[in-house]
Structures are given as C-alpha cells and as structure tokens.
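Consider this today:
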Amino acid sequence: MQVKLWGVRGSIPSPGMQTVKYGGNTTCVEVRSDAGELIILDAGTGIRQLGLELAAHMPLTCHLFISHTHWDHIQGLPFFVPANIKAMASTPNSSLHRVNRWRCFSRSLPSSLR
C-alpha cells in the first residue's frame, strides 16, 4: 500500500515560504492498494493537483471518501478535474453528489460538478 499526502493543512490553505516543507494545501490523501485500487480521503485544496495528475489516466476508477463536510475538507472538490469530465461516474448517493446539492456551494463555483 502506498499513501501520498496532497494536503495536510487545516482550516485554510497556507501557501508560502513558511509551508514549503510540508505544503500549504488543505486535507487530501491518496491511498493506493497493492492491487492498484485508488482511494482518495477528503477533498481539500490538495485534490486539485491530484486531479491534474489523474486526468492523464482517464477514464479511471477511484473511491472518494469525505470524512466530514467542513470547508477545508471539500473546498478543492470543484477543481478536481476528473469530477468535471463526463466519463467520470458517480452514484446519486456519492459524496460528490451530496456536496454538489448544496445550492449555496454550487452557485459560487467556477464550474458545476457532474
């Protein structure tokens, strides 16, 4: 199993020279099983860069788990490229759909989630 931390900050992203060592993105963890299964834990701002890398391997299957819907755990979701590609499938009860149903959330975004 491999684990990669794409974001470890809480509350708000903190880019800058002070955070170069550990990064400035909010929570996002990539887990890959020995069989190659992809699990993503939380969708803080770290999910944006992860999505850019995954977009090169579309279509893909992954499991996205949102631990809770505090802003720092979901604020990167609108910028997760694979979620904005029609080939990406999600179920009606998925975290992606539940978060997108928030009207105040989806109206303030630069793109809609599919």
